[in-house]
């Protein structure tokens, strides 16, 4: 695609006329942050993050953090993910217009995607946390382990048929930097475990400090082993199904690392400095590449 840079610059300059001071400050912040460098480290799974996907994600993260210090939330991530799929070659990628009919968030690239976000200053080194796999108004009316198992089989498991892949965007802030990690919870092992291993005897209420928990939980094991694949919590306080999935069993699509807030000095944004990898995974240094946005 041919780009007329002079025409674009002229339109930007013309568009500045008439803006209020606070609007100009916001524009200046975005422009200043376009000079920052963002570090990308590819994951072991390469079927999703193409070069176009990588660059589109980088662009949106830079723009977001020109105006916000908090990580992308789920709603923002859905839009960004859709745009990344479009940039990767699917112009028909779209947000789900009717989640009452089917619970996927984005359709594109030949798949229906369920998208989640996770953020915090101290994320687990071992599990990816999904705070809402699905809403579950039936939880408070499930006083026994038998009730829980039946409702998971009848109400939770069929929900997974509404989408094909589950992707979690994890954000970790450390020393002024924020790293986004794109992890995928494999759909088939999750669905198989729910189909085959949901039995009353795996549901119980844990006892901590001599007090029994209010909510039922269950550990699902990796097939043919005694290793936990994920833990499910039927959270009565918010009436949601939550899961903690083993990070080692997830598909890793890559990291993006950038300053979490806007610098006042363009030269500071352009420094190429080593950034410590967050605690999710190891990486091979030779896979690190420094990406500079083309603006």
From TrEMBL:
Matches recorded under InterPro entries: SmaI
GO MF terms, alphabetically ordered: type II site-specific deoxyribonuclease activity
Annotated Pfam families: SmaI
Domain of life: Bacteria
Region of interest: Disordered: 267-295
Basic and acidic residues: bias regions: 270-287
Name of protein: Uncharacterized protein
Species assigned in the record: Streptomyces olivoverticillatus
Organism taxonomic ancestry: Bacteria, Bacillati, Actinomycetota, Actinomycetes, Kitasatosporales
């Amino acid at each position: 695609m041919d780009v007329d840079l002079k025409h674009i610059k002229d339109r930007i300059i013309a568009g500045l006329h008439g803006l209020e001071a606070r609007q100009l400050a916001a524009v200046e912040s975005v422009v200043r942050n376009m000079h920052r460098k963002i570090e990308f480290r590819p994951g072991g799974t390469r079927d999703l993050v193409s070069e176009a996907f990588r660059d589109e994600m980088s662009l949106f993260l830079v723009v977001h953090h020109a105006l916000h210090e908090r990580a992308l939330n789920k709603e923002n991530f859905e839009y960004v993910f859709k745009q990344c799929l479009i940039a990767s070659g699917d112009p028909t990628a779209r947000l789900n217009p009717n989640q009452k009919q089917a619970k996927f968030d984005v359709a594109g690239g030949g798949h229906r995607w369920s998208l989640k976000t996770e953020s915090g200053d101290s994320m687990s080194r071992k599990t990816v946390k999904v705070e809402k796999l699905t809403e579950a108004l039936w939880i408070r009316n499930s006083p026994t382990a038998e009730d829980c198992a039946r409702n998971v089989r009848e109400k939770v498991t069929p929900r997974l048929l509404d989408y094909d892949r589950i992707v979690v965007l994890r954000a970790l802030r450390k020393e002024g930097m924020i790293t986004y990690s794109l992890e995928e919870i494999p759909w088939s092992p999750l669905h198989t475990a729910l189909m085959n291993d949901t039995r009353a005897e795996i549901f119980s209420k844990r006892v901590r400090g001599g007090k029994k928990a209010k909510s039922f939980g269950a550990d699902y094991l990796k097939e043919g082993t005694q290793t936990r694949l994920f833990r499910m919590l039927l959270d009565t306080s918010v009436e949601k199904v939550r899961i903690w999935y083993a990070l080692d069993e997830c598909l890793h699509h890559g990291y993006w690392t950038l300053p979490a807030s806007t610098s006042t000095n363009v030269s500071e944004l352009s420094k190429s400095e080593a950034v410590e990898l967050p605690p999710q995974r190891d990486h091979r240094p030779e896979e690190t590449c420094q990406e500079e946005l083309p603006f």
